[in-house]
Design a protein that fits this description.
The complex is a heterodimer of chains A (271) and B (290). Chain A is an all-alpha fold. Helix content of chain A is 72%, strand content 1%. Chain B is globular. The chains are: A mainly alpha (271), B mainly alpha (290).
Chain lengths: 271, 290
């Protein structure tokens, strides 16, 4: 396998994980524009653990999952006090604050970036991505997974049916943060170099776009969205700028023709 | 020194305020976070640079650049809000973001990625008040921003279109039932928003004498912060928020260094969202759909 193909496939795997990181809160009715904050935290904390303490990179990635889950759970308390567009803006602000903080942390290189020597190869990254996809598909075939959708469809009815609305919202946000952390840790250890400048809110919005393009109605939507966003610009010929022009036009066209996202719900309850 | 930072902050804030007005109109009336706004801002700034380089008289260059904002706003409306009626609420977010990508890369192809120096054809006159230097063009910029918002205020309160917009802001369906021509009134939001954004872009290009294909991103994000801090959906709040964010930015630079700006500005935004999500001038919290 050529190096180019491998790096495209690695990006596809990581973007798929990130797409699910944005998908989980979105299914529970939260537009999370702060995914990149947790990607950055995951990347930097895993990189720090493997570099400073010599932790095996896969263990460091697992640790990053727990760190991001804990931080996500913690910030979910104030964040979930806000709703709707306010929640989206609060996560956006969180993203900028986290990015700004990392840029000022000299222990991980600050604005000059952070080299991470330990390496995670393509097979491990791909395995993680497959595991995440399988786990997500399995999750949304359980009652627990479906209850997330119930919360976003009608909060009051879900509450009346005995679902813990706040608990589910917090769980979705936390699980999303954990997946974002995993994606960040894998990226850091595969490409061996991270820069906090890349993890701004525009990164978060891109990840949200994967999900919206694929569609939020089925669990396969994020997978398709991540694939389109990763592979399409690579498949198009011409200079980078022209590729993005065509890409943007295609997005506008797709969303005009299929506003619900590409994949539609057959039924959540079909199986 | 302190007064100088205050003046600089107010001048920078007037640009944020104009963008905040554009965001707040789209959110207040249509509940739509319009991510094409950074693109419109950038196109106006780059057009100002290009037209001035082609030795076009600056008032004409400025007017053309501002007009581009209105036209692009209309184009964005055609592909975002028009489709919103029969689609999920997040679609305009995706398409408006695609417009940002499209505009940035088209400008990149046309004029390259370099930071361009805008050659301003008039002498910069400054007033000295004690130790404080006030640049007159920047002062005119600030006045333009406030004047534009005052005009918008009159438009919203006194005219038929404005009443229509305020009815749609309450409830689009009811507005349609009451005979408001929603399909004809909604484009006004995009055109006015585009004009305000472009005015901000022109003022930025003229006052800070630089333009680049990516100039819109960071400034528009600060505009969003300004909108929330002042109170979402409130145009005077947008002005207040813009000036406040400008001041917070210049003071964080002076006291803590350039790299802490984001922590200061967005920390303030986060605090406001947690403590008083309707912002400084906002009323009671309305249940928001997204």
């Amino acid at each position: 396998m050529s190096g180019y193909l491998e790096s495209v496939l690695v990006l596809l795997a990581i973007n798929t994980i990130l797409a699910y990181a944005a998908f989980l809160p979105m299914v529970a009715g939260q537009l999370n524009l702060g995914v990149a904050a947790f990607v950055a935290i995951g990347a930097y904390s895993a990189g720090y653990l493997s570099q400073t303490y010599g932790l095996h990179p896969v263990l460091a990635a697992l640790a990053a999952i727990f760190i991001c889950a804990f931080l996500g759970w913690l910030v979910a308390f104030p964040i979930l006090r806000t709703r709707g567009i306010y929640l989206a803006l609060a996560t956006f602000a969180l993203n900028q604050v986290v990015q700004g903080t990392i840029l000022n942390l000299n222990v991980v290189g600050g604005a000059s970036g952070y080299p991470v020597p330990a390496h995670i190869g393509f097979p491990v990254v791909a395995t993680f991505a497959v595991l995440v996809v399988v786990a997500m598909v399995a999750l949304f075939h359980t009652r627990f997974g479906i209850s997330f959708i119930a919360v976003s469809d009608d909060e009051r009815a879900a509450d009346l049916m005995g679902l813990s609305v706040r608990g589910l919202q917090s769980a979705a946000f936390t699980a999303g943060a954990a997946l974002a952390g995993l994606g960040g840790a894998l990226y850091a250890h595969h490409f061996n170099y991270i820069e906090a400048q890349n993890y701004g809110v525009l990164f978060s919005i891109y990840v949200v776009l994967y999900v919206l393009l694929g569609g939020t109605q089925t669990v396969y939507g994020p997978l398709l969205g991540a694939a389109v966003f990763t592979l399409l610009p690579e498949l198009l010929r011409g200079s980078a700028a022209w590729r993005y022009v065509i890409f943007a036009c295609l997005i506008i066209a797709i969303m005009s023709l299929r506003p619900q996202g590409v994949l539609l719900r057959k039924s959540w309850f079909s199986s | 020194m302190l007064e100088q930072q205050l003046v600089n902050g107010l001048m920078l804030g007037s640009v944020y305020a104009l963008i905040a007005v554009a965001f707040t109109l789209a959110i207040g009336v249509l509940n739509f976070l319009n991510f094409s706004i950074p693109g419109l801002f950038m196109v106006a700034g780059m057009l100002t640079w290009y037209l001035l380089r082609a030795h076009i008289a600056w008032p004409i260059a400025a007017l053309l650049a501002i007009g581009s904002g209105g036209l692009l706003g209309l184009l964005v409306e055609r592909f975002t809000y028009r489709l919103m009626a029969r689609s999920a609420h997040f679609v305009p977010l995706v398409t408006s973001m695609a417009f940002l990508i499209l505009l940035e890369n088209l400008v990149l192809i046309a004029w390259g990625s370099d930071l361009q120096r805008v050659q301003v054809p008039f002498e910069t006159v400054s007033w000295r008040v004690g130790p404080t230097v006030i640049a007159v063009p920047q002062l005119i910029g600030l006045a333009c921003a406030v004047l534009a918002v005052a005009c918008l205020d009159i438009l919203l309160k006194k005219t038929r279109v404005g009443r229509g917009l305020r009815t749609i802001a309450e409830d689009a369906e009811t507005a349609a039932l009451l005979g408001v021509p929603v399909a004809r009134v909604v484009p006004v939001v995009f055109v006015v928003g585009g004009l305000f954004t472009a005015l901000g872009g022109v003022l930025f290009a003229l006052n800070y004498q630089q333009a680049s294909p990516f100039m819109g991103e960071e400034i528009a994000l600060k505009g969003i912060a300004a909108m929330v801090v002042g109170g979402m959906g409130n145009i005077w709040g947008a002005i207040l928020g813009g000036l406040l964010i400008g001041i917070v930015e210049t003071f964080s630079i002076t006291w803590f260094g350039a790299r802490t700006v984001d922590i200061g500005v967005y920390g303030l935004l986060l605090a406001i969202l947690f403590v008083r999500p309707t912002g400084i001038l906002g009323g009671a919290l309305r249940e928001q759909r997204m």
